[in-house]
Structures are given as structure tokens and as C-alpha cells.
Design a protein that fits this description.
286 residues, alpha+beta, Phosphorylase Kinase, domain 1, Transferase(Phosphotransferase), domain 1, 2 domains, 47% helix, globular
Length: 286
Amino acid sequence: MGRPLDRRTRARWDALIETEGKAVGLTGCRSVLENKLVNDVFYEGTFRGQPCIVKCSSRAPESIANEYEMSRRLAAVNRGVCAEPLTHWRSPDGEMAFVVMRRLSGPTLSSLLDAGVPETVAAGFAADALEIDEALERAAISHRDIFPGNLMLDDDGHLRLIDLQFSVDFDRPQPDVWLRQHPKYHYLSLGIHPEFGIGVWNDAESLSICLGFLPQTDAVRAARTALKNRAKDRFCRVPVTALERCRIFLYAVSLSFQVLFRPTSEKRARLSDRRAKVKQLLWKGV
């Protein structure tokens, strides 16, 4: 999750939520998480009486508007597949931004898998994955970061897709400037599943992999087969430069050193897994 924010940044966010947040309709906000990847802090509260989550970023503020727009576009196709976007705000200088989303009841699919998913529930999740994939295709969106942690259960028992912060238009994918300026996040931004190479995404395949962690009932196997068939024509590509490939290589080297000097086995394991993914991306190519 990263280190806590510095006091100045945290104080500035608290003040902005109290003033600008209140102006757009936020009330009763309290922080629930700090410094998760590219975001500074998450608050939960209410937006005009509706439970909500507020995602704040000064690291990649331009991505906040992207999350709002992409979520709105996906919800317009099928509002049952994602968290509903409520509003967003960006400071006049462009350095601070937040997006307000309807709060889902949770937990994530990752947490559900840790506890064990009953076979009777797995079929419903398989149907949810197919519905999510169909909505993404109809909306011409490539999510680029589908994994069990970005699928969250709502109070109606269905999975919703979250975190469209770095999603792209499937028909006109553009390199993300912020991600290209921050090589630390290349393992995230330049191909989640190494078998597809650098700069390639396939949401249908990602959803199929998520279903692979469920009990393999007839319904789950049928959904995985359908997703794999869809995946054959669902490659979203963004060109990768030679300089970016070099930066990714240097990042892989730095991860090797980090693994050696991390004090806990948990952190070493997490870094080793990240290093393996990055190395596979390099060797597979575009």
C-alpha cells in the first residue's frame, strides 16, 4: 500500500475535501487508505446522501478525469457492471484531482477467494464476468488492469468492475503520458499478462484468468471457454519505444537488488513476483 502521506499533502487534501468536496455535495468524509499506487488518499462518506468513495491523486491527476469519463461511458452501456461515477473535481492549477464513485459493499474477489468461494456462488460470478466483458466490448474500452482485486462484490451479490483510472479507448489507444514518465509502473501499464507481450492488453483473457481461481463448475468452464474465444480478437495494443524497453530492463535489474535487501519474506515474495512478470514482458516482446 505504500507509506503514509507527508503531513503537508494530507492536510491539503483534508482541507480540499472539506471545502471543494462540500461544494460538490460531499459530507461526512473520513480517510480510509493512504498512498495506494498512484493515488494519495481515499475517503469514504456520502454524496448528496448516497454512500460514496472519494479517490484523490496529486501524482496522476489527469487520470482522475479519465476514470470518471470511462466509468460513465461503461455505465451508460450497462450500469450493473461497474461502480457508478458520481462527480469529479480538479484544481485550477491541475495538480490535485478527485473522483467520487458510489461505494460498493465489498469485499473484492481477492478476499472472497481467500475465504473460499462456494460452488453455488461461482456460477453467478461467471455470469457477471461475461456481462462485464460484453459491456467493455460495447463501450469500446480496454480496462488494462483486470484482476481479482479490481472486481468487487456489491450488496446485490454481483461483481462490479472498479478502477478504470488508466483505461483506454479500444479503437484509439493512446500512450499514457504519466505512465510513460514513471517507469516504476511499467509492469502495470505495459501489459498485465506477459504472454501477450509488451504494450498489449486483453480484458477477455484477464477475466478468464480470474475465473480460473473459482471452483471449476460446468458454468465456470463454459464462461471461461466463451471468454477465451472472445479473446482471440480482443487485443488492444499501444506501441512501445526502444527507450521504454530499456527503462523496463533497468527496472527489472533494480527489482533484483530490492529482493536481496528486503527484510521480510512477504516483501521479497511480492517483489520477486513483480520481477518475474517484468522479465517475461521483456523476453516476450511486442
